[in-house]
Amino acid sequence: MTTYYRYRDLVAQGRVNNRMTLSRWIKAGLFPAPLSLGPNTKAWTDQQLAEHDASVAARSTSKAA
User: Fold this and answer.
1) Cβ–Cβ < 8 Å for 7, 22
2) Are β-strands 35-38 and 41-45 bridged in parallel, bridged antiparallel, or unpaired?
3) CB atoms within 10 A of CB 11
4) Alpha-carbon distance 2 to 39, whole Å?
5) Nearest 10 degrees: CA dihedral of 46, 33, 42, 47?
6) pTM
7) Reduced to 3 states, what is the DSSP secondary structure of residue 32?
8) What is residue 16's DSSP assignment?
9) What does each of the 65 residues of the chain score in pLDDT, given as a tens digit?
10) In terms of C-beta density within 10 A (0-12 exposed, 13-18 middle, 19 or more buried), how is residue 25 classed?
11) What is the number of structural domains in the chain?
């Protein structure tokens, strides 16, 4: 079963602090783009966030080496 996370969920998890930062990260390719669930509803899946976490971990590991 897919779990969807909205912006407020990302804030509660400590992934992002404000919408402008999130928007910049998405445009720069540093964070996955949300899915559109309706005309005013955007969300990320648990799979998207897991893949993002893995890519961040890989980037930080490669920088440390």
Assistant:
1) yes
2) antiparallel
3) 14
4) 20
5) -10
6) 0.86
7) coil
8) -
9) 999 999 999 999 999 999 999 999 999 999 999 999 999 999 999 999 999 999 999 888 877 66
10) middle
11) 1
* Angle subtended at Cα 54 by Cα 34 and Cα 17, rounded to the nearest 5 degrees: 50
Scan for tokens 């893995």, then name that residue. 54
50 touches 44 (CB < 8 A): no
| Residue 36: exposure state from Cβ atoms within 10 A (0-12, 13-18, ≥19) | exposed
Per the listing, tokens 């404000």 go with: 18
User: Would you state the structure tokens that stand for residue 23, as one six-digit string?
Assistant: 């928007």
Which domain range does residue 16 map to?
4-64
Q: Return d(Cα 62, Cα 54) in angstroms, integer.
A: 12
Dist CA 49 CA 35 (whole Å): 12
